[in-house]
Amino acid sequence: GFGFVKYDDELPDFFINPENTLQAMQGDTVRVSTLKPSPTPDRGPEGKVEEILEHAYERIVGTFSLGSEARNMIGELHLSDKKTMNFKVLVSGDGLTPNDGQVVVAEVTRFPDKIHPREIIATVTETLGYKDEPGMDILQIVYSKKVPNEFPQEVLDDALEIPSEVSESEWAGREDITEQTLVTIDGADTKDIDDAVVAWKLDNGNYHLGVHIADVSHYVTEGSSIDAEAYNRGTSVYLTDRVIPMLPRNISNGIASLNPNVVRLAMSAEMEIDPQGNVVNHRLHTSVMKSHARMTYDAVNKILEGDVFVQDEYAKLVPMFKVMGELHEILYNMRKNRGAIEFDAPEAQIIVDEDGKATDIKLRERGTAERMIESFMLAANETVAEHFDKLKVPFLYRIHETPDADRAKSFFEFSKSLGHPVVGDPSKVTPIMLQKLMEDVAGDPAEQMISTMMLRAMKQAKYSPDPVGHFGLGAEYYT
């Protein structure tokens, strides 16, 4: 069939007619020539695939079926990936011979071509189990998406060399904040706890906010095998029934996790915030800290809602949580006044049992505690970004540029057609214009559609060495 080639985040994709695809598969990296220029600004040029530079599906995952009509083939693979499931995959006898019904990993040895446009030949390299085993559906996704789910032995060996406790020598040059009443607030099932917060009211009427992040870089040094593996993974991957960590678990769940009542090393941002939400003073420093409680969003929400039983359980911390609640309201109103756009799209939470089978689907709740931590992290990130810009040193910022006038105009027309006109000039769009629109459509049947189309009209947030600001947050600085 026909296809599209993405070559620029800001420009429409190339259109490729069926006879010009060179049998490239979904996700392949290709070299394209232009056959016809773009007919309109919102439609891309027509192109021809000249060369396949890199195949996206060098490794495939599927269920093995014994026997094949094809000569010299031991069976076939049935793929679960919607992008490839219509291809016929023949399994050669050059690799492993799995049992009928086993889920396997296979290396592609022949890709589709002009003679066999819908056929792939592959060799089995690994068996994962049977398709009805608990968690096998998730494991198939892990392998098909090439998520690294096992650490190289060198990385595991190096991780074992990292101590499980903070030594006295590591306190040197760090500020001791172990007496401050720091707490962590996370989901009940969070394993790697990497941030802690503390707040109190100052005598001058301002607020002290401390945001403290586990100092992972102290243990994962640049250029080490652990650093290289973390760079390769990029992030931890959170799946329905498991987490595939970026770092070995003795680091992510151990020495670099801010577990309660143990000393940990941290990077700290301490801010003084006035009643209008402005950061009037701040300090960034390394520290030695201790979490005084491992709190959950649910527990903190109940405290803020006045649940006397939970308040009694955490009586010593209740005054601080009330101060945190006040500060969150101040920060939220400050962001709203400057035009921050809040997308509160519904999110499903899938509940699974011990066998990995879905038992329920619930609406994921975002209570005051979740929004409060978001407020504190935004304040810290903005403060850090501005700090390094003022120092005039190289730094990586998270930026979100103003939408293009053409896309903004199209969105304004779309929203107006649904009975919700945007007040303002699309060539000079501001965050406040879109924020007011979201307030106007709140609860309306068209809310979700308008929200989705608004997101499509915006540019993607990205990292940049230049602090051009963050449109969606209405922020001058962000990281």
Describe the 3D structure.
It is a single chain. This protein is 27% helix and 28% strand. It is an alpha+beta fold and 479 residues long. The chain folds into four domains: 3-54, no CATH class; 59-144, OB fold (Dihydrolipoamide Acetyltransferase, E2P) (Beta Barrel); 156-366, no CATH class; 402-458. The mean pLDDT is 94.
Question: How is the topology of this model organized?
Answer:
Layout: E1 3-5, E2 14-16, E3 29-36, E4 46-54, E5 59-66, E6 73-79, E7 88-92, E8 102-110, E9 119-130, H1 136-144, H2 153-160, E10 175-176, E11 182-186, E12 195-201, E13 207-214, H3 225-233, E14 237-238, E15 243-244, H4 249-255, E16 263-273, E17 279-296, H5 297-304, H6 308-313, H7 318-338, E18 348-352, E19 358-363, H8 368-391, E20 397-399, H9 405-417, H10 431-441, H11 447-457, E21 462-464
Parallel strand pairs: 2-4, 7-9, 10-17, 11-17
Antiparallel strand pairs: 1-2, 3-4, 5-6, 5-8, 6-7, 8-9, 12-13, 13-16, 14-15, 16-17, 18-19, 20-21
Helix pairs in contact: 7-8, 9-11
